[in-house]
Amino acid sequence: VEGLEKLSSFCGTDTDAECPHSPSCAGLELSVNNNADDFSLTTTAGPSLSLSCLVQNSSQDEGLLWYRGDGQVDLKDGNKVNISHICVSPVSESDNGVVFTCRLARDKSVQVSVTLNVQFPPNLTGEEYLHVEADKDVTMSCNAKSNPQAQTAWYKNNELLTLEQDRYRLYQTSEVFQLSITKVQKSDNGTYTCMVASALGQGKKDFHLIVEDRKRPFPKEAVIAAVVVVTLTILFGILARKDKIFKVW
To answer: What are the transmembrane regions (predicted)?
Structure first.
């Protein structure tokens, strides 16, 4: 299961016997990081994160199971009974929204889940050179992924871009921020900057747009017509002088 290799466990035996509504389960509950109900945990990308599951109100030893999404985490011996720890290291952007669940081994309906809310700034750098023929369309695309979601804007030559109706079009999702220009003109030459900023930081990317003269299409039809004319001229010339040609032979 993707992501399980990032988990380390520490701190026994468990059993798969079920105990639905058994008196031994009465009042028994689990807690994860001192939370007995499902909860969301906000953290940042980078440092490791420890999750601890604890059995409460039990009169006997209880086995525990950990899951990342639908995949079961492999726990070491000594880290399965009454209390169990897992460590997510390192925490990355891909962990955002991932659900970790601690379950009682003999009654998996007894559980507590934690959803990770991993916050990270925009990661946007670099520059790009775009050579486009006049009257062609062009699209500039930025990675706008961040948590919390960032504010975005386009600049041209360091000034906020004024969008021309019917020629400029913006497209934005939680991860992509695009600017499209229809039928570019020489006046569109310049440096376009994609600015992405959130409470955690900002990033930008420059696009150097160079509009080139439109290339004239190769006159294929005219060349074919010229070849036909030359061929016919030669053929008619041969036919007109056929008597002299045959007399030589």
So the answer is: 222-240
